[in-house]
Amino acid sequence: MKRTLAAVLAMVIVLDLGVGQAHVYAQENIPTEAAETVTQEMKKAETESGKETETTVEETEAAGETKETEAAEETETAEETETTVKETEAAGETEETEAAEETEETEEADEGLETVGELAPLPDDPEYIKLQQEAQTADGLSVEGHLRGANWDGYTHNAKFNGRTVRNGIDVSYYQGSIDWNAVKNSGIDFVFVRVGYRGYSNGALKEDPNAAANINGALTAGLKVGVYMFSQAVNADEAAEEARFALSKISGYNITMPVVMDFEFISGGRGRLYQAGLSKDAATTVVNGFAYTVSCSGYTPMIYANKTMLENYMNASGINAKIWLANYTSQTSYAGDYDYWQYRSNGYVSGIQGNVDCDFWYDDTVGFTLTVPVGIYTINWAFNTGYTLDVTDSSRSNRANIRLYEKTKRSAQDFKIIYRSGGEYAIVAMCSGKSIDAEGGTSAGANLIQYDWLNGSNQHWYIQDAGNGYYYIRSVADKNLCLEVEGGNAYNGANIYINQFQAKDSQKFRFSNTEYAPPQALPPVPDPRQALADIPWRGRQSHAWHS
Length: 548
Prior knowledge:
The protein has 548 residues and is an alpha+beta fold. 29% of the residues lie in helices and 23% in strands. The protein is built from twelve helices and 23 strands. Strands 3-4-6-7-8-9-10-11 form an eight-stranded mixed β-barrel, surrounded by four helices. A six-stranded antiparallel beta sheet has the order 20-19-16-15-12-23, with no helix packed on it. Helix 9 links the parallel strand 6 (225-231) and strand 7. The chain is elongated. The termini are far apart.
């Protein structure tokens, strides 16, 4: 009876403490044969003093009726635990929330690891999130064994690229693993862009791609042309410049002849500091131009990678001072803006690489894809009469001094340093002043040829195209349809030099003659465009439109 009473009392105590705990003990069975006795004992218990009740419970415990007593003790323990948990939850709620916030994105990034490959994701890497989405598609096109031309394996190129060479390339990062670069080269690939680093999509830290050096070295050794890219999450021009300097620091000492690229894109799911910044079109354009300017000042060719939606809706594409690398996964893009490269699929494959790889077209319009004139100091003589040569008027050291035709006099005003940059591009520097040959006013026919401080504008860059028989055309990078010409086609002292429509005529041909030359001690050193020129103030006059 006392055992039954103890069990009932335990039940009553628990129910008194709250209905919320009833489900914990509702499974405790009360013997049915003792029901009547229990009722009587409960009535008796109601009239007894609290002392008698306490004595009864104590006697029950002493009698060793542990099952019911344990139930009561468990009830008390549960009550105490419940109170403690509530207090702990109240005290630690903020800490738990913060911890969850810190781990949430990492956990999301880790999900689906098997869809990317066996390589573990790099911390806070925006490219890994992108690859998760791309991995949902099946293996795609092999770039081997297909003809190249206007329609390359079902890909239709814009008619504006007629006359250009369509070259095939890929872009790679840590996630392609170890690469057999000789096999890649033998599969028909002409060029590659190697990721050198990225900015974290949540914490914003700059990180180096672990495979950058191995990929650059391997690709160059195999004979591929190499450019590099930085996966950006920059939200202002200062961060963009920081990313550019980071990328440049990783390519020092390498023969990088392709552009240095800013990969500017949102990552999926509305995540990432770039997406969350909510930049206006003008602000986003300012960001990418910050990257382009920093790269350009170091003597490399800047380029911005972005998808069609980004270019059309989130930036002012016509205001970007760099080449454009369009990403649009289709057989014929409808993008109407300027671009020099087209990433046409993300799930191609080539020999030498396990798994998928991004595939790209390059519409190569460079004149003389390789170096045509060795670096050196030359007189630049006119084809009609090689006794006349380019000359800085009055040996001036001033900006905007005119470049004219004049009889050879073996003066420093007639000597020019030819500096090869990359991609077939040259800078031409007057030895008498250290200033660069410049098409004044930019890119229109009729622009006068002058000298000016090196600003790395496209109208200070030149292609030197082989015209045969030891002669060359000097064509403007700002507009490949323009070249140097002697105005009027007559040889006399002071004849003007300007840029005109390229017509492959003799008045547009020149011969480069090597010169033994030691500049006077008083002259300043000749600037080398491949050295950093960030200390030169930006004047905004020069054309930096790298688009065709």
